[in-house]
Design goal:
It contains 4 helices and 6 strands. Strands 1, 2, 3, 4, 5 and 6 form a 6-stranded antiparallel β-sheet that branches. The protein has one domain: Thiol Ester Dehydrase, Chain A, CATH 3.10.129. Strand 4 and strand 5 form a beta hairpin. The chain has 182 residues and is α+β, with helices and mostly antiparallel strands.
Amino acid sequence: MTIKKGWAGRFYEDLEIGDIYPHPLGRTVTQTDNIWFTLLTQNTNPIHFDAEYSSETAFGKPLVDSTFTLALVTGQSVTDVSQNVMANLGWDEVRLPNPVFEGDTIYSYSEVLEKRESKSRKEVGIVKVKTTGYNQDEKIVIQFVRTFMVYKRGFSPDTIEARVKRILSRDQKDQKDQYDQK
């Protein structure tokens, strides 16, 4: 039996200034996403959850909560740039040049702007990326700069593969012990 290593994300050493990562998954925003997120975060502006109210605004329909857009596009970037992050340090320069509406599909990409060794932690480096989210019409809906501490290779917590190997090893030992007892 061979354990095939899955995608484990990039480490500090893998990220180079100027690299651009088109994130692989788009996401269509639903009415439920918008209403739940808005109410979960106690945002009481009816433009996000009251269709009648929002029909009387300049947009004519509900707007997607902008903090949902920030969370969604950040999440889309994790696979490529921050799967191995120890900690987020901040989001800066958040811009929302076009609105997001229920039914829009959001895609994104990130560009590595800066990186440096951590002065206080040998196991991580500090990376700054600019992430851009855009809709199905290729209109930019959000841009932001995010700074995070990312593990260096060999310093991250246990991988899934290491856990699976331990489980399989224990399982094989248990099966052998059961066989020996018969």
